[in-house]
Amino acid sequence: MLSAIATYLGLPTNYFDQHVHNGNSILRGIHYFPIENPEAIADDAVRAGAHEDINLITLLIGASADGLEVLTRANEWLPIKAHHSDIVVNVGDMLQRLTNNKLKSTTHRVVNPPRELMKTSRYSVPFFLHPRSDMDLTCLDSCIDEAHPKAFSDMTAGEYLDERLREIGLKK
User: HSE of 172 in the Cβ direction (CA atoms, 13 Å)?
Assistant: First the structure.
């Protein structure tokens, strides 16, 4: 996947290899617990609120139930039907930063199932592909021009991760 992204960006196909080898990637099992009292849940309640991932890309291989939605450019929520053999790829904040917004971080959320299915669990196993902490996230020169001035300050992936973890309260 990263080779395809590198090709799209006009970079050598192996551009990301040195940056992700022995990186800080995480495979995370997520269990969305059953909702025992569906009648107590507001109609607009969600299992996971709208957010973007911090990393380069996230790979999600299927899920045990529907619920994943992505925000489209038209500002509408699009349900994603990720079956067991499907791979959903989300662009993360680090790739957005590196590409000076050429590739936008995917805003997504997980909504509750219909009331009749609320007493069931949902499982997903996303792979958060993080680069090594020393990867330079300075905007690529090829993504900067007069119509797209540099939007981000220079920093490494480690500095950016640290900044974001502090912003969301996971680090002091």
Answer: 0
Query: Token pair for residue 155?
Result: 């920093």
Tell the residue number behind the tokens 């109609």, with chain if given: 43
Cα 110 to Cα 90: distance, rounded to the nearest angstrom: 14
Cα 98 to chain centroid distance, Å, stands at 15
What would the two tokens of residue 170 be? 């996971």
DSSP tally for the chain: helices H, then strands E: 4, 9
Is 0.90 topped by the overall pTM? yes
Confirm if 82 and 60 have CB atoms less than 8 A apart: yes
Q: What is the largest CA-CA distance in the chain?
A: 55
Closest CA to 15 of 5, 29, 28: 5
Contact 158, 134 (CB under 8 A): yes
DSSP 102: S
CA angle 80/86/88 to nearest 5° reads: 55
7-29: pLDDT as tens digits:
999 999 999 999 999 999 999 99
Residues shown for the chain:
172
| Alpha helices, H only, 45-154 | 93-98
